[in-house]
Amino acid sequence: MTLSESREGDELIIERLSGPLPFRHRMAELGLLTGKTIRVVRYAPFKDPLEFTLHAGRLALRIHEADQVHVHLIRRATESGQS
User: Fold this and answer.
1) CATH number at residue 71
2) d(CA 55, CA 37)
3) How far apart are CA 19 and CA 5, in angstroms?
């Protein structure tokens, strides 16, 4: 599963990054590293970009970037969108 396929409120673990090497380096500099836990906060209108928490901060990625972040679902958000 990729980050772009997640729902608001989902908790995920980063499994790997794909895409060009410069993109993977940029994501690593932002703290998107294998084994890190993230939580999807919300999607903007039209589902692009998406906002998520990582460590104590919040980041946003465009959907085409989130397609390159492969994740494992820890906890699915409830139907109401709350975790």
Assistant:
1) 2.30.30.90
2) 8
3) 17
SS3 76: coil
pLDDT of residue 33: 93
Q: What is the pLDDT of residues 22-63, one digit of tens each?
A: 999 999 999 999 999 999 999 998 889 999 999 889 999 999
In a domain, 63, yes or no: yes
Residue type, 37: T
The CA distance from 20 to 35, in Å, is 20
Query: Is residue 80 situated within a structural domain?
Result: no
> Is residue 4 helix, strand or coil?
helix
* 81 within domain boundaries: no
Where in the sequence is the domain holding 50, given as residue range(s)?
3-75
Q: What is the pLDDT of residue 83?
A: 46
